[in-house]
Amino acid sequence: MISRRIIRIKVMQSLYAFHTSPDQTINQAEKELFHSIKRTYDLYHLLLQLLVEVHKYASERSELRKKKNFPTEEDLNPNTKFINNGLLSSLAQNIALQDYLESKKLSWIDHFNLIKKLHNQLTESEFFSKYMANSDSSISEDRGLVEYFYAEIVAQSDDLYQLLEEQSIYWNDDVEFVISMIIRTLGKFKANSPDFKSLMPLFKDREDEDFTKELIRKSIVNSDEYRSIIKTHLKNWEIDRVAFIDVLIMEMAICEFLNFQSIPTKVSLNEYIDLARYYSTIKSRTFINGILDKILKSLNEDGKVKKAGRGLIEETKSSTKRIK
Length: 324
Description:
Elements (H helix, E strand, L loop, with lengths): L3 H17 L5 H41 L6 H4 L9 H7 L2 H10 L7 H12 L2 H8 L5 H16 L3 H10 L7 H12 L19 H16 L1 H10 L11 H16 L5 H15 L4 H18 L8 H14 L1
């Protein structure tokens, strides 16, 4: 579930904490990094359950309206299209989801007002009205409503963000990514299939988990070496004048150039330039791009960049293009 991009962001944040906390050890930094990643996985399950709770609230509300002293025709014969949404039924009965939430003691039980508010925002939307007015029902249409709920209701909820910030320092920055993973997960669900147990794993594979551990450890252990490389390629700049986050981003990029044979240098370069766009100053992207270009050229000339597998194939393609 955790993408390489999110791994890089988490490592960058952990490196920043490590270098600004003089008493922290490498083991502590690694432990904090993996804790942060696991909290993102917690949020993934918790936000999946959020839709289950909204669906449950709608069902209970419909039943209560039938029991009114003077129920209307609409109360007695409601439009049950949302309540009968097959995708939501599958999610509500998903064993893997419920087992995980129970094991981590995660729930929305104390946040009824948020559930009610999100339900009202959904049911009062024009999208929902059109969904309910269409007498036809399909898994594609049900999935469209789910995607709308997460992208337009959940992602825009200030109340949710405030609540998440109170519960975990890690969560607010993760919401957008987690929502994209939820939409991908539900894209694979089948209607009314309670035995469908496949949720996304924490890491895509063992290689990604090893990448996480090696990236933070090698970035810390070789920090002085990487910083020296950066200094060599700074013109008319003292490294102390460079934004600290920019230095960290460049150190991580150099770490990937030198230590991860299967990752093409172009991929690493693009990822860290993009990281600078979101986490540093306006001018940092161009600045970092220029410095890393020079560093990569120098490392290649010295024969220090050694790639294998996909990394080697992509490097060969890039070299061929440059020759042409």
